[in-house]
Specification:
55% of the residues lie in helices and 13% in strands. 19% of the residues are buried. The protein has a 5-stranded antiparallel β-sheet, sandwiched between helices. It folds into 2 domains: 4-124, Ribosomal protein L10, N-terminal RNA-binding domain (Alpha-Beta Plaits, 2-Layer Sandwich); 129-199. The chain is globular, with a radius of gyration of 33 Å. The chain is α+β, with helices and mostly antiparallel strands. It is built from 9 helices and 5 strands, in the order αβαβαβαββααααα.
Length: 220
Amino acid sequence: MPNKEKLGAVAEIVDQFNASSATVITEYRGLTVKQVTQLRQALGGDTTYTVVKNTLTRRAAAQAGVSIDDSLLVGPTAIAFVKGDPVAAAKGLRDFAKANPLLVIKGGVVEGKSISAAEVNQIADLESREVLLAQIAGVLKALPSRAAGLFQAPLSQVARLAKALEDKTPGEAAAPASETAVESSDAAEAPADAAEASADAAEASAPQTATDTPAEPAEQ
């Protein structure tokens, strides 16, 4: 029967699994205490790098509902529990492993899905969350100036411009000068279209004159 110390260790690992958006399993054989400390500092406060026992980790993973291949829990094992951006953590581990080949990335789990070491490196090649947010902000910043004419254009123009904005990709956020000129011209036509619509409405509501009354059939 497991003793209290082992039960406590399992419970702690379960908590780490439950609190993490991703985990990366590594082998640290040959790394010095100093190097492990440097790795922890490189990963930052959003990632906890913990040396674990394989048997206890298997038990904790089962309790937490995390699927980990048994082949990953062989040899001296340490797990990076990621509570922040998985991309940043993957970059930190990959860069440290390049400088310190004794650190071996075996694989991991991201949002409940098991991933290989190659997939961890693929994640490391992605843009970080901060970079992606900055790119999105740049696209959104360009939209208001393009959308300003929507408030002056008739409904048909609004629908067409809204569709154009929706179809734009991030790389096309900045409109060419010729396109801007067309949109300005469309907005300028709004008063004329409104006047024409008012005239049509007035004509439709006007009382019929005698000439509009159908002629009665001639008497036989």
